[in-house]
Write a structure and sequence with these properties.
The structure is a single chain. About 4% of the residues have low confidence. A hairpin with a 2-residue loop joins strand 13 and strand 14. With 446 residues, this protein is α/β, with parallel strands linked by helices. Among the domains are: 67 residues, no CATH class; 104 residues, no CATH class; 68 residues. Helix 3 runs antiparallel to helix 4. It has four helices and 39 strands. The strands form seven sheets. Strands 16, 18, 20, 21, 23, 24, 26, 27, 29, 31, 33, 34, 36 and 37 form a 14-stranded mixed β-sheet that branches. This is DUF342 domain-containing protein.
């Protein structure tokens, strides 16, 4: 069988593929039982797909290789610890394009009274181990713990794992702490009467923010109306009920998430996520996490969108071929780690060749068994180290697999960059996923 087939292992040895060599196979030589025995002789014993082996044996000439002959299970890493609000402060978006969105009613402002529990810590989970096709257990990583700290006007009780309010006000969540800020409220539009706003807590505006005004807040900023060519800087999140009409001049920067009905000719920078309900039109949007536009029309057209983890939309580009640029960042440190592990594998493989040669020489010289056993143990340890490095490489690669997801249409003339790789879309795709595969940007239709 070795002269006709070879086995390729993928996904941390949880998937075994049978590939056919370019050698003619005599009739009747490959039977189900012989093929199964050969596969088992390679140490593969878990998740063997009997039905696939039968198809290969019965339809050898017409079968299209590679064949997936065994399946293991990748480990599922544990979830990291996090703070869970003791109340729900957001309502779910209606994704039906035909339903008119009243964005002012989509969000309720979270408030707390003195002594109230505002959040509880959810502990990290252990994760679920995986198993390779060789029957080896693949350990899962435990989720990261979270060191909860006292925030503004909040106290964390370690024994109860609860965050208590030490003052009344609006609640803001920021990573490992919860803050409660006083509220600066403007009933109506920002105007010459209010002037620019610079406040140490949350800012809530029930009207619009016209062009030329500036808002700076230590907490969250909530605007029920429209933001024109104004500047907003927030250490927390920004929620804009109407939308952004930036005219190419206004800028919004926030330390948390940005949420809006639409963005038109705006500039938005968020350390968290950018979530837009309807459209992102001729704008510059940059999120350290993800950009999402999948409610209602869910269209990204013109301008530039940059994200660290991924971009999702119903439609990207348009029929008039407006220049639309999408860019996914990649983590340089992780890429260096991958190279480091690949170099270690090469070193270990070279050393293995020498050890195997030495073992053969010692056996030929009738060297005492104890010495040979030491060499055999070293060879076994080297194989384990190589397997561990390959697992780390797969883990890093999985963490680098940011993607662009399109539920509807990906139009031509959209330019996509993922790290240092670029691709210009030449034709339309429907329901597609764009990602890096073997140092190339690929478009996979779903």
């Amino acid at each position: 069988m070795d002269q006709w087939f070879h086995i390729k292992l993928e996904n941390s040895e949880t998937e075994a593929l049978l590939l056919k060599k370019g050698v003619e196979i005599p009739s009747g030589e490959v039977t189900f039982s012989r093929l199964l025995a050969w596969i088992e002789s390679k140490g593969i014993r878990h998740g063997i797909r009997i039905e696939v082996l039968s198809l290969v044996a019965e339809n050898l000439e017409s079968f299209i290789f590679p064949a997936e002959i065994a399946n293991g299970k990748l480990p599922k890493d544990g979830e990291s610890a996090r703070l869970i609000p003791s109340f729900s402060n957001e309502k779910k978006l209606d994704t039906n394009e035909n339903v008119k969105l009243d964005f002012k009613r989509l969000f309720t402002i979270p408030t707390a009274e003195f002594g109230e529990i505002v959040a509880r810590k959810q502990n990290a989970t252990e994760g679920i181990p995986g198993i390779s096709v060789f029957g080896k257990v693949i350990p899962a990583k435990k989720g990261k713990d979270l060191a909860v700290k006292n925030g503004e006007n909040t106290v964390y009780n370690e024994s109860e794992q609860c965050v208590y309010a030490s003052a009344s006000g609006e609640v803001t969540f920021q990573n490992n702490r919860v803050n409660i800020y006083p509220v600066y409220r403007v009933d109506g539009d920002v105007s010459l009467k209010t002037g620019h706003i610079d406040f140490v807590g949350n800012v809530h505006i029930t009207g619009d923010v016209p062009s030329g005004f500036k808002i700076s807040a230590k907490g969250d900023v909530r605007v029920e109306g429209v933001v024109e060519a104004a500047d907003i800087i927030s250490d927390g999140s920004v929620i804009i009920g109407g939308g952004v009409l930036g005219q190419g001049k206004g800028t919004v920067r926030c330390g948390g998430d940005f949420t809006s009905l639409y963005i038109s000719q705006g500039n938005v920078y968020a350390k968290g996520n950018i979530r837009v309900a309807q459209t992102i039109l001729h704008s510059h949007c940059e999120a350290e996490s993800s950009v999402t536009c999948t409610s209602g029309k869910g269209n990204i057209s013109g301008g530039t969108c940059i994200a660290g983890n991924g971009i999702s939309a119903n439609n990207i580009g348009n029929e008039t071929n407006s220049k639309t640029l999408l860019y996914l960042k990649t983590n340089d440190r992780m890429e260096k780690e991958i190279i480091h592990h690949e170099q270690k594998i090469l070193e270990l493989e070279k050393n293995l060749e020498k050890l195997n040669h030495l073992k053969i020489v010692l056996i030929q010289k009738n060297t005492e068994q104890q010495t040979i056993n030491r060499i055999v143990n070293t060879i076994s340890q080297s194989h384990q180290e190589i397997s561990a490095h390959r697992t780390e490489i797969e883990n890093y690669k999985n963490s680098l697999q940011s993607s662009i997801n399109i539920n509807g249409t990906l139009h031509p003339h959209v330019e996509i960059s993922i790290g240092k790789y670029k691709r210009k879309i030449q034709s339309s795709y429907t329901a597609a996923k764009v990602f890096i595969e073997e140092k190339e940007i690929v478009v996979h239709t779903l």
